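User: I'm designing a mutation panel for FAD linked oxidase domain protein and want to avoid disrupting the core. Could you give me a predicted structure to guide residue selection? Please restate the sequence first so the numbering is unambiguous.

Assistant: Good idea. Sequence first, for numbering, then the predicted structure tokens:
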Amino acid sequence: MTSLTPSWNIIKTELSNLEIITDPLQISKLSLDYYHFSPILNNQLQDKRGDLVVRPNNEEEVIQIAQTCVKYKIPLTVRGAGTGNYGQCIPLKGGIILDTTKMNRILSLDPGTACVETGVKMAAFDKKAREIGWELRMAPSTYRTATIGGFIAGGSGGMGSITYGQLRDRGNVQSVRVVTLEDDPCVIELRGDEVQQVTHAYGTNGIITQLEIPLAPAYPWAEIIVAFDDFMTAARFGQALSDSDGIIKKLVTIQAAPICRYLTALNDYLPDGKDCALLMVSEYDLEAFHDLVYHYQGQITYLKTAQEASKGTSLLEFTWNHTTLHARNIDPELTYLQTLYFTLEKVENFYHYFGDEVMIHLEFLKVAGKAIPAGLQLVRFTTEERLNEIIDYHEEEGAAIANPHTYILEDGGRKVIEPEQLAFKKLVDPYGLMNPGKMKAWE
């Protein structure tokens, strides 16, 4: 609670027409995300909690919450489903947590585009969109529970990025509506390039209430596991599949052999000692896909049609950062990194240099129109000093690390101050109440 904050009873009275959560256990739960994937963040954030949770139903109620926060100078932290990993939605200075999950209306859904409220869950949206032959362009491994607004405010890419790149790429978010924390809070609509002011900004400079997003044609996605005798053959297959413009794909994941043993639900399909590819490929392109597998001497151990895959656990659940989740369920001492390798030559260098200390997990995605290998490597954590040495070596060798062991916006992915985001924060949050402590430029 800040020195200017009155009794929380006064705040609750002012917001009494809204859904307010005061139960300490619920407040604690809604103050956190998956920050504990990082031993560094676990030490820094484990005691951070909000004072009150408010769940608005609509934009008007968001404005009311914003007015109250400005009036009493109360810190405000916005959250969706809390599936992030860097403490994006963890309040560093207490205050009000604004939970957006009840703002879950699909406002319009048309071929190629949709307008949604921020709390719409991604899997629920796709179920509706596929009825008219469309789907989300990309989604994280937390797809079943993540909200669209939370993903755009705190995420960067995922399933679908092999075709559509990352969220920050021009065109992947068409417009957003945000509520400000000025003396007289208002609604601002940002379109086109303007959306970069609030995307992947951790809710530090605007409360996203609505989004207009482009959609992708929905294909029947076959889910496939291919086993290989060695890692670099698997990696080269992943690159070749990613480069095959005639084969439509949604997911290209390569897991080094040590990692496969952590994916226990897939044990029957991950031969011991083999390196594996976990894939989503259009059923229409399976003949060409089989030819590519044969060329790289792979062995298909698992193949489900789209209809079959829809009835069970998707392979997505074992890729992107869910790989880390499954591995840590078995060995909590493991942590991870996020890396753009850019080339297979760099991948091979790190694979041999670190051995099992850094187990390579590749996700292929488009960067500037080219498919490249990225990594969510599993790291055997010993000390913070050693982890920093590993990060430094990667960067010295030309890889780009998006550091998942910091909650500071600029220290994570882009490593630079974003002048557009800072300027927008000065405009819409003059008192610095939104998710304070996360934006280095402001602090």
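For picking mutation sites, this is relevant: The first strand starts at residue 19 and ends at 21. The radius of gyration is 22 Å.
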